Amino acid sequence: MSTMRTPVDPAARSGRTAQQPAPRTVGDVMTHTVVAVGSTAGFKQIVRTLREWRVGAVPVLEGDGRVIGVVSEGDLLPAPDDAAGVRPARGADAAVHGEADRQHGSAADLMTSPAVTVRSGTRVREAARTMAAKKLKSLPVIDGDGRLIGIVSRADVLSVYLRSDEQLAHAVREEILTPLSGAVGELRAEVHDGVVTLSGRASDPELVPLVVRTVLALEGVVDVRVGGV
Fold it and tell me: Is the domain of 178 the same as that of 142?
């Protein structure tokens, strides 16, 4: 007769709780002052806005402040001949043919729609993954009604990795390893360039993967390695 062992949460086994801080959200790092354009904004107005604010893209809003698209520098440039099969934001009737027509188009004609957006409660790591997957430099932040409340950039999401190695090592020890010491034994943590290396003697080696996942979830940790456990 075979038996199957169910993994036990190390915090539950020790009777103590790892005091992990709540993961940082987009609302913690986003910029609240946002430049945007209305759907009727013209080509030159959009260009002036991008240049004045030194940004590469701006959200496009309807009258009630809802985000309906994003217009970027790339949207303002003439499309290459091989892009003829790309469907414009609002159908064939709204397509802007040729550079002359493009310069007479409105934001609604030129924008990419629907916009890729995030909520303020979205975890920073999730926003970073969205940017990477969609190859975007920024994301409009919206409320529950789809209205613009901020913008989050690559620099904003990368700010969570600015914690020093000393700060990370202290956080791993005080917030994770010490509260769980009764379950995982005498584990030590060293940090170099955001990479945490766990070493020492584990009371139960089967719990080490759970500890690794807990440490990896700590904001600012780049990777976790296990050596000599």
Answer: no
Spatial distance between the Cα atoms of 226 and 1, rounded to a whole number of angstroms: 34
Compute the distance between CA of residue 70 and CA of residue 139 in angstroms, rounded to an integer: 9
Question: Tens digit of pLDDT for each residue in 6-52?
Answer: 334 444 444 444 444 556 889 999 999 999 999 999 999 999 999 99
Q: Domain containing 95: what range?
A: 26-158
Whose CA is closest to 139, among 160, 162, 158, 115?
115
Tell me what pLDDT residue 4 has. 33
Q: What is the CATH number of the domain that holds 92?
A: 3.10.580.10
In sequence order, the 6+-apart residues with CB closer than 8 A to the CB of 125 are 23, 157, 160
Same domain, 189 and 211: yes
pTM of the entire predicted model: 0.65
**DSSP string across 117-167:** -EETTSBHHHHHHHHHHHT-SEEEEE-TTSBEEEEEEHHHHHGGGGS-HHH
* In-domain check, residue 134: yes
pLDDT tens for residues 174-206?
A: 988 888 877 777 888 999 989 999 998 888 788
- Residue at which a domain ends, from 158, 177, 207: 158
